[in-house]
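Can't paste images in this forum, so I'm doing it all in text. The chain is below; anyone willing to post the predicted structure tokens underneath?
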Amino acid sequence: MKRLLMIITLLAMVFAAKAQVEPLLLSKTDDHCEQWVDSVFEKLTVKEKIGQLFVFTIAPVENKPNLALLRDVVKEYKVGGLLFSGGQMEIQAKLTNQAQQLADVPLMITFDGEWGLAMRLKGTPNYPRNMILGCIEDNQLLYEYGREVARQCRELGVHVNFAPVADVNINPKNPVINTRSFGENPQRVADKVVAYSTGLESGGVLSVSKHFPGHGDTETDSHHSLPFLSFSRARLDSIELYPFKQAISAGLGSIMVGHLEVPVLEPQRGLPSSLSRNVVQGLLIDELGFKGLVFTDALAMKGVATHTNVSLKALQAGNDMVLSPRQIKNELEAVYRAVKNGELSEEEINTKCRKVLTYKYALGVHKQKHIQLSGLEQRINTPEAHNLILRLKQAAVTVLKNKKNILPLHTELNEIALVHLGLSTNCATFEQALKKQVKVTTIQVAANLPIVERKRIHEQLANYKRIIVCTAERQLTPYQAFLNGFMPEQHIIYTFFTNGANMPQIGKAISAANSVVIAHNNDTGVQEHVVNLLFGKATALGRASSSIGDLFKPGDGVTITPQTEHQFIPEEFGMNEDVLNGIDSIALEGIKGKAYPGCQIVVLKDGKTMYDKCFGTFDGNAEHPVVPESIYDIASLTKTTATLLAVMKLYDKGLFNLSDKLSDHLPDFQQTDKANITIRELLFHQSGLPSSINFYLKAIDKDSYPGQLYSARRTVNHTVQIDWRTYAQPKFKFLPGLIATAQDDTHSLQITDNMWLSTSFRDSIITGIIDAKLLDKRFRYSCIGFVLLQKLVEEKSGMALDNFLAKEFYQPMGLKRTTYLPLHYFQKEEIVPSTIDRFIRKTTLQGYVHDETAAFQGGVSGNAGLFSTANEVALIYQMILNGGTLDDKRYLSEETCKLFTTSVSKISRRGLGFDRPDTKFPDRSPCCKQAPASVYGHAGFTGTIAWVDPDNKLVYIFLSNRIYPDVWVNQLSKLDIRKRIQEQIYKSILS
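Text version of the structure:
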């Protein structure tokens, strides 16, 4: 009956655990587990059951006294587990085999390996300390680390690893935890604890999170005395207890209780938490619901050793297993006497014993194999194990600071200086790898240099704009005077191949630096990795795990990847960065003056980005800020960013001459008054074609509205203003059959979300141009001419304009966000709204081209319709400035680029497709007065512009949605924003 009650009690405990969070290891147990536990348990005496709750520490030494001790603790005291102290791997394996052979009940072999087996055993893989691992962002890598340590443990016959440290080390003076902790941030510490422990347990080794309730904020080492934690319960909950709570929620299998005095949890003075029932049973088990295996910290430690019968008190407190008591015979006897005299119930011993046996089964202790000694070292030290060490170290590299985005560096830099602090041999690999990237001048700086020598070296460094200071030194104070001597205009990059603890010794220099990289160690693979990330050829995701004085706080770090754009120092390209940054105030003035809700501005010099900034929002709503990836309707900038490119490409291929008559290639125009228009005339805008044609009028039913469609003033019917002097009637109807609300076989030209135009309307475009009266051949800016150039391109290429451009230019150039019909490829939320069309389409145009001529062709036209970003538009014009090449790939011939960018009309300022400065009448010029005559580019109605200056090798791009929300507002021109920005660019060019 008594046994039945015990079983019922045990089952109740199991079901209660499952109702909360059952340790994941126990969820893997089966019916055989209970059978094995019963079969072992029934054979044990009370003393033997007590023995199962003890873990004894023994040295891995093969002398007679040690072997005799091993035999005693296993055969006589029948301990449940062993913990080997430091030594040789092979000896530990031998003693493990011997111990398991001696044991009646298989032993639980434990290990204290916070950074792997190397913490205790020589010749094993040595992993980084947790404080370094805490810098890693990829927790999957911590999981892999746990799996690999578990593999090594299993090879060595180890079932339990007393790791990880779950303490939050927020006290930099902590003498015992410190680098053993994952860091100062409770959330990040918890994430690392769970990731590593899950990996460990998925590999079949029990993890033990320690030291509950938290040893991170003490200045006392519990190995020597009892630390005192005077914190409130709220503080403990938010910091110390947080990682343990997350470990419990994650279903991790074990927690170790530390020797800490915490008055808010245990009022008895001087009673360690490991011996406190309030802490172990009350808080950990009852309140936090932990159902896993509870270990004490080592009971031989002075933080607890002053207490008598510590093992008994630890078990009474609620611990399941006691670790390393000093006098094991006396401790076992004390527990046995307590059971006999009722101080500790036998039922409680039985419950704990069954729990230990259950964990032994779950960990495979019951089927423990003999450890094969031959090949053990090779099985532990696999290439994969050591590769993981390198991967962890590389992932922990952290760019703590990157002022002015100095990183990544570009290999086109003329030369950099490398300054070694201390022995250059410590960073020899770094130097060699650096010299493979760029020309390097190396200088070695010794400690405590005299003033004269410091001055000489700084004079030598005066001509270098980028200086890399590298060191593996721990004592940095002797270099302080030298480092404080750098000039403000010099760009200093510090690379630390050591930990950052001593960085505050040179705090002033660090504060003045542009970039600071901490690699934590000087391993060869890490040094090579740092060079690669300095040049954007490797990834740095690390974040500081702990504070570094007042210089850096936990979480600080900058991401560098191969996709990170190189930033350049304007002064190195003849520009003044401070003057260039004056663009900011002009751009912001435009937003304040309601010239546009937002904009993108890019300036390139010699093909390098000097300025790249975004301002404002999509529509005035702060929830939609403009970012570099925001896509704009570039309006008539399409003419030179799309159509002209296609014309130049086909001209390159010899498919026509500029003197050719358009009608020679487009027969529809042969019997019209447009028959003699040449391609050159179309490009110069002097063909006699009208500026524009309102093609949409052909779709409107003239009988659907009273009187005139337009008015010079607002009336009852003319309620929508469409420009400064024109109002329109919005209450009209389209001709029957022309518009559908959804796409079908006859309506394929999408104008808005719910407007589809008849496919046949395309014919109305050509008919409308043929029917339009040809005017005199003077300069007349004409969108119609570029519609005809589109037809020429499509006729000669055999492809639609958008497809031809994508194939020949945009895709091979790597342009991801330059396209017609952007809603085919992007979400509407990625596209900046152009305007609110209250007249024709009666909706906000977001992803649909504003220009009506383009819209009524389905969105693809030679005059408008292209969408892009400032960065990608800049690349197109840089390609033209380069003479037709970009990134060593040719798109146009140099001769064609020269012809189209230098030719000027005899009767206007215009070039072949391009607009140009007006040198005769500078006040009328689209450019600022400082722009040389060689400049070429174009503007767009939506508030866009692109200018190329071949003399100064400049590209200037400005994109905005100045017609949002109303097309008739033109504050952009009134404030002269685009010209003033261009003027600021020229001001920044140094003489």
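The CA atoms of residues 476 and 505 lie 6 Å apart. The radius of gyration is 39 Å.
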